Amino acid sequence: MNAPLNPAPLIELATAYWGSATLVAAVRLKLFTHLAAGPAPSSMVAERASTDPVATDALLAALASLRLVQKDGEGRFANTPLADTFLVEGRPGYLGPAMLYNGDIYPLWGELDGVVRSGDVRRAPDQYLGDDAERTRNFVHGMHHRALGVGRAVAQVIDLTGRTRLADVGGGPGTYSALLCQQTPGLQAEVLDLPGVVAIAREIVADLGVADRVKCTAFDYYRDALPGRYDAALVSGVLHREQPAQVQAILGAVAEALEPGGVLYLSDVMLDDDRAGPTFATMFALNMRVLAHDGRCHTVAESRAWLDAAGFDLTDVTRLPAPIHYTVLRAERRR
Ligand SMILES: C[S@@+](CC[C@H](N)C(=O)[O-])C[C@H]1O[C@@H](n2cnc3c(N)ncnc32)[C@H](O)[C@@H]1O
Questions:
Q1: What is the mean pLDDT of residues 3-32?
Q2: Do 150 and 316 form a contact (C-beta atoms < 8 A)?
């Protein structure tokens, strides 16, 4: 006789959001930043964070079970190395804004069935692309901290040696432009993005000390031609918002503005050619469905065909592992 099936995986899946909510709440309350000042009992953490002592104790116990804090023999809590490295404000690896961005969007996931029923988004994407100042700031700073931390690996596989003019289409916070200018002597970059986003990108680029090499220009790829001539282009994390016709239009516009022999890097979360994995990409495709009217993930095979139709030869494919999950395609504009 077969052993009875254990429903534990279902219970785990149904409650998996508890862990996300616990992490987001702790970041919102800056608990890891408060703990960086030194180990403390929950009552003292509550004092530092101006929170309820009993609920704070319960939250810290949950964080300990998630291995984000640890409790010593005297009942004092301290950050684990993971939390200390990535969740303390002011540290170079700080990922707090990326966590907060996920906190912003997780109520939308609760309406996923409605999204699938109607095929439409529940919240206008424009809210975090300029219309709502605080959501836009969380989104842009979330992208910035992600790119500065884990996203550095993307910049490391991009070789722009000898190139002088980069168009960073949908460049968001401008972090990749800044990193690429820092690693490439003689390179100037132009971040092209929606007005509310480039306003924040200008601040970030100035903070990084590269304002003289990275220009930020308001641009809408649904309406505008690229404003200059370039010998390199980056389209990173943009095409997962768009349906195939739009992807082709964007690649066509990039081809128009690139010199023959110009290099294009396309970097994004991409599905396997059978569209059944990897798991992160299938979930990310749903995330984009919740967030953008045409959100989806594409495959390398589709991208190769679109690049070819736009006048590019695909020369390289690099798959980056977790936590990046990006595939980076390198292509050259045919002469
Ligand atoms: C996920 S972000 C990627 C940002 C950055 N390239 C990166 O990889 O970190 C997608 C970007 O596309 C931009 N975007 C969305 N619609 C756009 C449009 N119509 N024209 C220009 N940029 C747009 C968004 O503002 C956002 O900055």
A1: 96
A2: no
Distance CA 297, CA 266 (A): 13
The H-or-E segment that residue 271 falls in is strand 270-271
In whole angstroms, give the CA distance from residue 192 to residue 190. 6
The Cβ of residue 151 has, within 10 Å, a number of other Cβ atoms equal to: 23
Which ligand 1 atom sits closest to the C-alpha of 171? 6
Residue-level pLDDT at 122:
65
Which of 80, 184, 101, 188 lies closest to 145 in space, CA to CA?
A: 101
Contact 208, 194 (CB under 8 A): no
Among 145, 193, 197, say which to mutate for ligand 1: greatest number of ligand atoms within 8 Å of CB.
193
Residue 14 phi, psi dihedral angles, 5° rounding: -65, -25
Q: Are strands 270-271 and 258-268 parallel, antiparallel or unpaired?
A: unpaired
> What are the chain's domains?
8-91 (1.10.10.10), 152-333 (3.40.50.150)
Q: Sort strands 69-71 and 77-79 into parallel, antiparallel or unpaired.
A: antiparallel
State the pTM of this model.
Answer: 0.88
Instruction: Quickly count: other Cβ atoms within 10 Å of residue 83's Cβ.
Output: 24
Cα distance between the two ends of the chain: 68
Whether the CB of 197 sits within 6 Å of ligand 1 = yes
The per-residue pLDDT for range 129-183, each reduced to its tens digit, is 777 888 888 889 989 988 987 788 999 999 999 999 999 999 999 999 999 999 9
Q: Which residue has the CA at smallest separation from atom 1 of ligand 1?
A: 237
Contact 331, 313 (CB under 8 A): yes
Residue 43, token pair as written in the block: 């009552």
